[in-house]
Every structure is written in C-alpha cells, then in structure tokens.
Amino acid sequence: VDEARLQELRLAVRAFVEERRRAGDFIPRCDAWQNGLSREFSRALGARGWIGMTLPARYGGRDGSALERLVVAEELLAAGAPVFAHWIAERQIAPSILRHGSEDQRRRFLPAIARGELVFALGMSEPGSGSDLASVRTRARPSDRGWVLSGQKIWSSGAHEADFIAVLCRTSESETRHGGLSQLLVDLRSEGVDVRRIPTMTGDDHFCEVFFDDVLVPEDCLLGLEGSGWPQVTHELAFERGGPERFLSPFPLVEAFAARLDAGSDPHAATAIGGIVAECVALRALATRIAQAIDSGNDMSVDAALEKDAGTEFEQRLLDVLRAVGGAATSDPEVERLLGEAILASPSATLRGGTTQILRGIVGRALTGR
Ligand SMILES: Cc1cc2nc3c(=O)[nH]c(=O)nc-3n(C[C@H](O)[C@H](O)[C@H](O)COP(=O)(O)OP(=O)(O)OC[C@H]3O[C@@H](n4cnc5c(N)ncnc54)[C@H](O)[C@@H]3O)c2cc1C
Questions:
Q1: Ligand 1, closest atom to CA 123?
Q2: Which carries the bigger pLDDT value, residue 33 or residue 142?
C-alpha cells in the first residue's frame, strides 16, 4: 500500500467535494448514500475516475484497489455528498457482474457504471420475504423470447429513479429453498413494470414497491447461472455490509455538532465526542481490514456482518450521546436539521441490509463452525 498515494487521492476528493458544497451544489446530509441522488454529481465523479476504481481498465475502471475505493467512499460519506445515483451499482452490482456476468454483460454495464451513468436498484425483499429471503415468490419462467417475470418487490430504494433493478426470483423448482433462484437485470422501462413510491416518516421517498406483470426480460439479462442466485446475492450483501456507510452516515451531524461545541469549557462534551471518535476509529479499522481482504481475494462476509451490526448500533447510540450532551450546539439550525433527520432515519439502520439478529446469526454460525 502506497500511503502517500492514498493520501493524495483523499485530499483530491476532499477538495472536489468541498468545492461543490461551497458552490451550493448540495447540502450535506446524513445517509446521503441512500437519500442524496444527483446523476450530475455521480457523472462528475465518474469523469474523475472515482467510480468503479477496482474494475479492470478494459471495463472502464482503474485496476485500483479496494483500499483506494474505501478512501474515496470515506470522503464522500463524511461530507454527506449526494452519491446515491452510483452507490448501489458501484458497491455491489459491478463486483457481481465482474465475477458472475458474461463478457457481453461486462462490456455493456461496467463502463456505464464507472462513468456514473447507470442507476441500479435492488429487488430482493418482498412482502413476507425480508430476513427470510429464500422464501421469495417472484418468479420468472423461460420462454422462447427470454424470461417472463411476475411478482412484487418492496423497499427497493431509489427504484423510481433507477435504470435497472437486480431481481432475485425463482426460475426453477428445487429440492432446497436456496436452489432454483436466479438474478435478472431488469430494465425498469420494460413493459409491465410498475414502480410505486412509499413515503416514510423522514420525508424521503426513496422507498418503492416494484410490480412485475409478465415482464419480458431478454435471455442475456440473466446474471450468472440459472439457479445460482442465492450465493450471488449473499456475495453482494457482503459488499453492502462491509463498507464505511455505517459509521460515516452520521458524520455530517457529528462534525457540525463538534464545530459548534465549546469543548474547552465542557469536559463532558469533550469526553462524549472523544468516545464517538474512538468508536469510529475501531469501526474504520474493521472496514480497512475488509477492504484488504477484498484485495487479497479472501472471504470477508463474516467481518462484513460484524461491521454492519456494530456500525448500525453505533449510529443509533451516538444520537443519544449527542442529545445528552445537548447544550447550545443542538439549538443551532444546521445541527437541529441534521439531528432531526438522523433521529427519524435511525430505526431503519438496524433493519436495512440485514437485521441485527440475522447478522448475529451469521457471526454465530461462523464462530461455532456451523
Ligand atoms: C432503509 C431501508 C432500505 C432498504 N432498501 C432495500 C432495497 O433497496 N432492496 C431490498 O430488496 N430491500 C431493502 N430493504 C429491506 C430490508 O432488507 C428488510 O427490511 C430486511 O431484510 C428485514 O426484512 P423485513 O423488514 O421483512 O423484517 P422481518 O424479516 O419480518 O423481521 C422482523 C423482525 O424479526 C426478526 N427476525 C426475523 N427472522 C429472524 C430469525 N430467523 N431469527 C431472529 N430474528 C429474526 C428481525 O431481526 C426483525 O427484528 C431496505 C430496508 C430499509 C429499512
């Protein structure tokens, strides 16, 4: 690892983001990787080569490392920049297409993802199939023109803005619950697709239900082998869980809060902020280890489950810490805005991407060797 190069990259991204913020191109938000969608911002990052860095150059990437990607992700998240347009596509769909996709799929999707031009949504959860994802009922049957997809997905973040959705569906009968599942890359403009938004108490409306009514999906949009959807999806989920989103989602709030705090005259406040920073450092060490494992080709799914579990608990707990410190900082309008948003969004942290109980099951099974 060339630390100097990483630092150079970090400072370049930081300067770019700061310039865009000063220009009024975005207002920092907690959770901006989920609620801040700007195709223009993502394209600007893509033009600088900061999306899909780990992809091979022949597919529009930079032959870069997961550590370099982590540095870029950290700077974007810490600034609360609007990165949702490329986030899902880059974080988990691109590695999956690279690993499981056909050569045609790699050439079709990966360069567009690296340019920040392709917005992807995730079609895993269904009414009644969340934690128990293997029970999905959305089904695709083969036809002479491709796959015919019918069913419903729910909680698909950003599907109303997305170009494609990666759908986990049943494509064949199987003796095991995890068999017979496949992934289809579905163009959301296809006939028979109906996307409906679900408002939430945060005021964001990234949540969507997606209905598929005999949607014709071309044969070449099957990702990987028929029947191998389950291992593919669990591989993707590790990328979703193992990143710095968890501990950096509230960073814009922590930074605004700390900036308005007179820590010198309030030892309790200084201790509280110190505690938050210490936890951040520990979570960051784990995220770094996960990035190193990706670079070495090692399985990081258990560490990723740990990162998501510990990170989301931290995310929720720190709001109580800041409110307990209180003081003048919380009555500052900017802090009040960020704190209000973060409080309303916080219950979702330990649900999305796998609930705390499910993650602990993964870690527990690994510890007991089952
Ligand atoms: C902000 C946000 C964004 C999301 N984005 C997407 C998206 O883009 N695409 C998508 O497909 N999904 C998305 N989801 C859905 C998310 O993946 C599910 O909410 C999650 O998997 C939990 O499923 P569920 O809501 O059906 O809860 P359930 O599975 O019904 O769980 C309810 C409770 O029961 C517990 N429980 C369930 N099974 C067990 C068990 N075996 N052992 C112990 N406890 C158990 C759970 O831990 C939980 O506390 C999103 C969710 C949120 C909150």
A1: 11
A2: 142
pTM score above 0.85: yes
Query: 162-219: per-residue pLDDT in tens?
Result: 999 999 999 999 999 999 999 999 999 999 999 999 998 888 878 999 999 999 999 9
C-alpha of residue 183 to centroid of ligand 1, in Å:
19
Contacts with 68 (C-beta within 8 Å, 6 or more apart), sequence order: 6, 9, 53, 54, 62
Q: Tell me how far apart the alpha carbons of residues 229 and 206 are, in angstroms, rounded to a whole number.
A: 25
Listed residue (233, 254, 246, 250) closest to 290, CA to CA: 246
pLDDT score, position 263: 64
Q: Is the CB of 348 under 6 A from ligand 1?
A: yes
Backbone angles phi, psi at 210, to 5 degrees: -130, 125
Q: Residue 117 to residues 60, 94, 211: CA-CA distances in angstroms?
A: 12, 13, 24
- The answer to whether the beta carbons of residues 253 and 342 sit under 8 Å apart is yes
Of all protein residues, the one whose alpha carbon is nearest to atom 23 of ligand 1 is 130
By the 8 A CB rule, do 77 and 32 touch? Answer: yes
Minimum CA distance residue for ligand 1 atom 20? 130
